[in-house]
Design goal:
2 domains; two-stranded antiparallel sheet; two-stranded antiparallel ribbon
Length: 179
């Protein structure tokens, strides 16, 4: 959702929405007077401002999600490095290709942001977005790889076979019956 959201604030206040690892957060959990930093675009420069923590609860969740994703990317990079491959994955800037909220193209005057967080022109976006995002050809290739396999004990080529079955069932156990 959007960084600022009265719906998210209301759902949080009603107990229908929570924060990641809520019990580990040292505050009153009501957030009435608390502030939380939020990134915004001012002109062509990113600035951090503090806003009411309750209203920007979605941004808190997004921050936790980005932190968790970053841990995964760092683990993958360690594996890549151990294999002797000179390549590094990195997360794009949080404003890159954002379709909702503060960084939605319509909300930042039609400007675009590249994966490194640089504000770019529409012409630069048009010229480069195919390098940054999946193309129609990329999608078709992935769909071509993802052929269904329904025979017990057999696995699609994009799924690693498990070491053992669920609840120590046999690998070829018929977990789902397809009629």
């Amino acid at each position: 959702g959007s960084e600022r959201s009265t719906n998210a604030a209301n759902f949080y206040s009603m107990g229908l929405k929570g924060r990641f690892e809520e019990t580990k957060i040292d505050d009153d959990h009501k957030l009435g007077n608390d502030l939380y930093p939020i990134l915004e675009l001012e002109g062509e420069k990113f600035v951090t401002r503090e806003d009411n923590a309750l209203t920007v609860i979605n941004e808190r969740l997004r921050d936790d999600y980005v932190t968790d994703c970053d841990r995964g990317v760092r683990r993958w990079n360690q594996i890549i490095k151990r294999q002797g491959i000179d390549f590094e994955l990195k997360l794009p800037h949080r404003a890159f290709n954002r379709q909702i909220g503060s960084f939605n193209q319509a909300n930042i005057g039609g400007m675009r942001v590249d994966p490194n967080g640089q504000v770019i022109t529409e012409a630069d976006w048009t010229q480069n977005h195919g390098k940054w995002l999946p193309t129609d050809e990329d999608r078709a290739y992935v769909i071509g790889l993802m052929q269904p396999v329904t025979e017990p004990g057999k696995y699609a080529n994009w799924i690693a076979p498990p070491a053992r079955g669920i609840n120590n069932q046999a690998i070829d156990f018929e977990y789902v019956r397809l009629n």
